[in-house]
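A.,

Following up on our hallway conversation. Structure tokens first:
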């Protein structure tokens, strides 16, 4: 796994319900570490620190947490990973998504990477999936 997570050898993932495939890899933008998420022809960017920050939050939470998933333009359900990923009270003080207009869907795309990296457990139901720290 040391060679994965690069543009040449991205992580190959599936959304929590296992219905769609996408890829992610580490990169840099404006001197910051980012996660590039490629879903079809759409490219999203997330602050790389979200992996460590989300893991710590889940450890403190201590139980399963609903993922939630919403586009940037829609409100996130309170108490979900998605809501935390855009909350003013998280460690970055707002959105982990970095591409204006495409900052949402944190709860859809980051949890499967956390599972792959063995930082979290994830359910894989048709709807209302949850995660917890490993």
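Then the amino acids I'd put at each of the 134 positions:
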């Amino acid at each position: 796994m040391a060679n994965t997570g690069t543009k040449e050898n991205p992580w190959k993932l599936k959304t929590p319900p296992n219905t769609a495939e996408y890829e992610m890899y580490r990169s840099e933008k404006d001197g910051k570490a980012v996660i590039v998420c490629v879903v079809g022809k759409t490219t999203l960017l997330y602050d790389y620190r979200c992996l460590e920050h989300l893991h710590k939050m889940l450890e403190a939470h201590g139980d399963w947490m609903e993922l939630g998933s919403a586009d940037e333009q829609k409100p996130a359900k309170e108490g979900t990973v998605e809501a935390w990923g855009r909350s003013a009270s998280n460690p970055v003080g707002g959105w982990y998504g970095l591409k204006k207009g495409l900052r949402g869907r944190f709860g859809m795309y980051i949890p499967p990477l956390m599972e792959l990296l063995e930082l979290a457990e994830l359910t894989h139901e048709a709807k209302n999936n949850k995660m917890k720290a490993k």
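Residues 86 and 95 are 4 Å apart (CA to CA). Curious whether your intuition agrees with the design.

B.
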